[in-house]
Amino acid sequence: MDYDHLFDQQISQLKEEGNYRIFAELERCQGNFPRAKNYQSKNVSEVTVWCSNDYLGMGQNPEVLLSIETALRECGAGAGGTRNISGTNHYHILLEKELADLHGKESALLFTSGYVSNWATLSTLGARLPGCTILSDEKNHASMIEGIRHSRAGKMIWRHNDPEDLREKLSRLPKDSPKIVAFESVYSMDGDISPIGEICDVADEYGAMTYLDEVHAVGLYGKNGGGISQQENVADKVDLIEGTLGKAFGVLGGYITGSSSLCDFIRSFSSGFIFTTALPPSVAAGALTSVKHLKVSQIERENQKRKVAKLRHKLELAGIPHMMNLSHIVPVMIKDPVKCREISDILLNENGIYVQPINYPTVPKGTERLRFTPSPLHSDDDIDYLVECLAKLWKQCALSRVVA
Fold first, then answer.
1. Of 250, 275, 245, nearest in space to 92 by CA
2. CB-count exposure of residue 192 (10 Å: 0-12, 13-18, 19+)
3. What is the pTM of this model?
4. What gap in Å lies between CA 378 and CA 33, rounded to an integer?
5. How many other CB atoms are found less than 10 A from the CB of residue 56?
6. How many C-alpha atoms does 347 have within 13 Å on its Cβ side?
7. Which residues pair with 179 in a beta bridge?
8. What is the spatial distance between Cα 101 and Cα 146, in angstroms, rounded to a whole number?
9. What is the dihedral of CA 267, 269, 273, 274, to 10 degrees?
């Protein structure tokens, strides 16, 4: 059996469809975000990154870097084991307490990534609650979908951000059976925001537990960076809030927060927590500093909002269509995978602008896009230059016909 031939066949199909992923080889420049060294092109040695999930530039924050350096000298490189076997460090405990406080919950639990925290938690809840049904928003992230699938629990899909459809689905289920409503606050590709309060009210009406993924909102929204649920004053209605330390907090890791019983349940039964090496103490220390900083500092959030508004305004003036939403995510719709890749390559190799094309299966076919995430560290000149380059390409590639 020629296995490589089987692999190559499917890769070739991806390339023919325009959905083959090419990773841009970059090197982030410490203290100079959003600039990065470009190893992808011989023509342009430095690029401006426009698609980073380090939404506030906290991965370059001097306080965060100092905390990482200090903990590295104190504790060494790794945790040395799983949380159960020698790997629980004092920084892990401090960070979990800080995250529980951020969301107004009794407890928190750290994971190695946001993906793992979703997968491990949903798979454990679905598998360990007898007769459980998980009701999942149709646009939930792959990590949530995989966790639900792995749990082998009952599953129902409800229409995106539609509390009435959720109500109809819940009404079909036995009143005395466990039910979990799983959804996100900010959806990363469209940038739309869910009606958290309404969804929680419907879930409560039918005795369902609420599971909210806030990964694209923590650090960015709310008076202390607690996410959309904090901004809307509904965090107390949510049973479990899941988040990440790898986006607005600029470091690495994922977490859940909730009641002490809930977190202890996941800690005790989740294989994705029990059998994996703990986060390095230096990473936990850096994340701890970032969370503390964004609890009190409004500068980063305020500056980011201004940059997002400016980019949207400039795109409108240039006649470049972008998906409207109330979040920090600015999707410029291309609606063609080949064109999307082409535009991205030209911007990178000729203009020193890096934005990754977003194609299927991340988004449905026919909705391909460039996803821009302005940060507080992008200058007004950066924005002007970006829109100027996009406007030229818009005409050259006849994109007005593609996106119509």
1. 245
2. middle
3. 0.95
4. 8
5. 28
6. 29
7. 133
8. 29
9. 100
Please state, in angstroms and rounded to a whole number, the distance separating the CA atoms of residues 354 and 371.
Answer: 11
- Token pair, residue 271, equals 């294989």
Asked whether the beta carbons of 312 and 120 are under 8 A apart, the reply is no
Alpha carbon distances (Å) from 86 to 277, 285, 373? 10, 18, 39
Closest CA to 374 of 315, 289, 333: 315
Q: What's the mean pLDDT in 224-246?
A: 98
Tokens of 279: 């986060």
**CA–CA dist 173, 282 (Å, integer):** 46
Closest CA to 261 of 276, 244, 239: 239
Q: Which helix or strand (DSSP H or E) is residue 73 part of?
A: helix 62-75
Which helix (DSSP H) or strand (DSSP E) does residue 225 occupy?
none
Token reading at 74:
């104190």
Alpha helices in 270-355 (DSSP H): 271-274, 281-296, 299-318, 337-351
Q: How many angstroms separate the Cα of 340 from the Cα of each of 13, 28, 40, 363, 366?
A: 17, 24, 18, 13, 11
pLDDT of residue 398: 58
| Residue 230 near residue 223, CB atoms below 8 Å | yes
**How far is the C-alpha of 245 from the C-alpha of 288, rounded, in Å?**
9
Describe the strand order of the beta sheet including 209-213 as a list of residue ranges.
Answer: 107-111, 254-258, 240-244, 209-213, 179-184, 133-137, 154-158
- Determine the Cα angle at 216 with ends 305 and 166, to 5°: 115
Instruction: Look up 175 and say whether it is catalytic.
Output: no
Predicted confidence (pLDDT) per residue in 74-118, tens digit: 999 999 999 999 999 999 999 999 999 999 999 999 999 999 999
Q: Report CA-CA distances (Å) from 195 to 108, 111, 259.
A: 24, 27, 23
- Considering the candidates 105, 179, 247, 314, report the single residue annotated as catalytic: 247
